[in-house]
Amino acid sequence: MKNNAATAEVAQPYAQALLSIAQSNNLTEEFGADARTLTNLISGSGELQSFLDNPFILPENKKNLLKQLLGEGVNPYLRNFLLLLVDRKRISFLEPILKQYLALLRQLNQTVLAEVTSAVALTEAQVQTVKEKVLAITKAREVEIETKIDTDLIGGVVIKVGSQVIDASLRGQLRRLSLRLTSN
């Protein structure tokens, strides 16, 4: 298990270097889209993460897998960056580096990330309503929505923006009601 502080210490300079490359070549949004795709791919596949983390697998094998995954469509700068991570034995930090890159990109674009947890999948109209509410609260230029489903909520949503949490779930309302009843 990787230490979070150590992971952040490794991820930060690489993410900043990637952002610098992207900015100098006017590719910040393209890299952002690729970073989202790769992050989803890694978090969705434990086997891929294990393969990249395994120190006994030869770097050439890791490079070949990355080249196959990326295909010809990915930007050569990004491909070379990933291959450099393999050479520097930092490829196991790929997911935190990409997440940090996305955080830096959001900061650059004055975009906030809203993590929305709901009991059921939200409709497009509901997502748009959440976006508008978050924009009004944060005064950001743009909102990026990341949705999760938690059936324990019973109904409603929990919205997390940075350290601020808005609990509009049925479970949260029941808990608050229970606290009021027990405090009397």
List the helices and strands and how they pair.
Elements lengths: L3 H21 L3 H17 L1 H8 L5 H12 L5 H12 L6 H15 L2 E8 L5 H15 L3 E8 L6 E6 L2 E6 H14 L1
Parallel strand pairs: 1-2
Antiparallel strand pairs: 1-3, 3-4
Helix pairs in contact: 1-2, 1-6, 2-6, 4-5
What is this entry, summarized?
The protein is built from 8 helices and 4 strands; from the N terminus they run ααααααβαβββα. It has helices at residues 4-24, 28-44, 46-53, 59-70, 76-87, 94-108, 124-138, 170-183; strands spanning 111-118, 142-149, 156-161, 164-169.
Give the N-terminus to C-terminus distance in angstroms. Answer: 45 Å
In what order do the strands lie side by side in the largest sheet? 2-1-3-4
- Estimate the helix proportion, in percent: 55-70%
CATH topology of the largest domain: Peroxidase, domain 1
Question: Which CATH architecture of the largest domain is right?
Answer: Orthogonal Bundle
- The string of secondary-structure elements, in order, is HHHHHHEHEEEH
Class from secondary-structure proportions: alpha+beta
Detailed description of the structure:
The chain is an alpha+beta fold and 184 residues long. The protein has two domains: 4-107, Orthogonal Bundle (Peroxidase, domain 1); 111-183, no CATH class. Helices cover 62% and strands 15% of the residues. It contains eight helices and four strands, in the order H-H-H-H-H-H-E-H-E-E-E-H. It has helices at residues 4-24, 28-44, 46-53, 59-70, 76-87, 94-108, 124-138, 170-183; strands spanning 111-118, 142-149, 156-161, 164-169. The chain has a four-stranded mixed β-sheet with strand order 2-1-3-4, sandwiched between helices. Strand 3 and strand 4 (164-169) form a beta hairpin. The longest helix has 21 residues, at 4-24. The relative contact order is 0.11. The model has no long low-confidence stretch (mean pLDDT 88).
